[in-house]
Amino acid sequence: MNIAKIVARIFRPAFFLSQMILILAVGCSPVEVTIVVLTATSSPAPTLQPLPTETPAPDATLTPFVPKAVVKIVSAVPLSGAQAVFGQDINRSAELAVQELSGPLNEMGYKVELVTYDDQNLVETALANAQQIVADSEILCGVGHYDSDVSIAASNVYHQAGLAFIAPSATAPLLTGQSFLEVNRVIGRTDGQGLAAARFAKDQGFSKFFIVSQKTDISLKNAESFRVESGRLGLKRVGSVINNVTADNTANFVSMIIKAKPDLVYISSTVDQAIPFLNELRTAGYAGAILGTDKLANPSMIQNVGPSLVKGPVFYTIMDPPAEYYADASQFLQDFYDRYSKTPVSFAAQAYDATGICLKAIEEASKAKAGTPPTRADVAKAVRAIKDYKGITGTYNFNNHGDPEPMQYYVYQVVSTDTASWDQNPIVATYEIAPP
Fold first, then answer.
1. How far is CA 36 from each of CA 14, 21, 39, 364, 375, rounded to the nearest angstrom?
2. pLDDT tens-digit series, residues 304-323
3. What's the pTM?
């Protein structure tokens, strides 16, 4: 048998098999198959060269992220009830901050989670939630509550457990007046408004003022700080009334102001007492300036006075301007809208910063321990030790009571008493005030 026959006999089965593969491949279209067919030849069998190949694709199975620890931030706010509109946006902002600001902790090997509790803005609910919160050892920092009374009630539970909490909206002095290491806020105290108002009065060129104040603790503190600071700045007090304004004494108080002829009336009272009084004051012919506290930030009540209120300048101090006011909040506003299809209400921007401070404190506390998970005590100390934290609502440092230092105060001017046109009322001044 010659060599050609031997080769043919050897390759014939391979040829037949290759043809069958080709037929099957075509019949299974549209799968693309590349086939190399060897055929018999009288020449020596060719040396096969490897086909050009692409760089092998990386293994599609990625190594899953296995955190060395889970750290949790808790948001404790009203998600139901009358104040839910504020609590929901505080919670949304905390959620957004965890999503956007957890990168450094992720890189350190931590998984960050947000846990949410609905306190319904009720003390008893907040206290029950607080017990559950402190029982979760993975929770290292918290944001909340909405109301000062609720925050104060729950703060003792957090203090006993060593859990740091940062309030985005609670302004009562007592919250930080307890001097708990764990309790902080990112908003001004309500009793700092008198100082800001006095500086505004000086800057506006007013020279004579009359004070009207209720006998409540906060009202008296603001009235007294306004009196002292205004005097120090060279303004003259021409009279004062320290009493609750009622239907029986309103006419007498109005008469006293008209006779004293001040160019500014400083009123430190709740809106339900202030509005009827201011209405009578304007009706009596007083066209001078009126300057109040955040208690006047009530559009529906101010509308009851009507356009006569703004026959003369009307101002009030607040601690929480809308997020649109902050130059550094534009990206937050866009991200919030993209995620939730709405513009955030008051205190949302502050909640974003409070959450950011929690995350930064956990990061710094872990770094101080060579990257190992920190304790609650470590985080509480790290929050208080924060230096120049650059948030979207300001740059934050805390004093030894947990108040931001300095605190920010804003002066609104009421140019329209119509609630539909309330956004026309501008912020006309900003003041940084040291905590009282």
1. 11, 10, 10, 62, 65
2. 888 889 999 999 999 999 99
3. 0.83
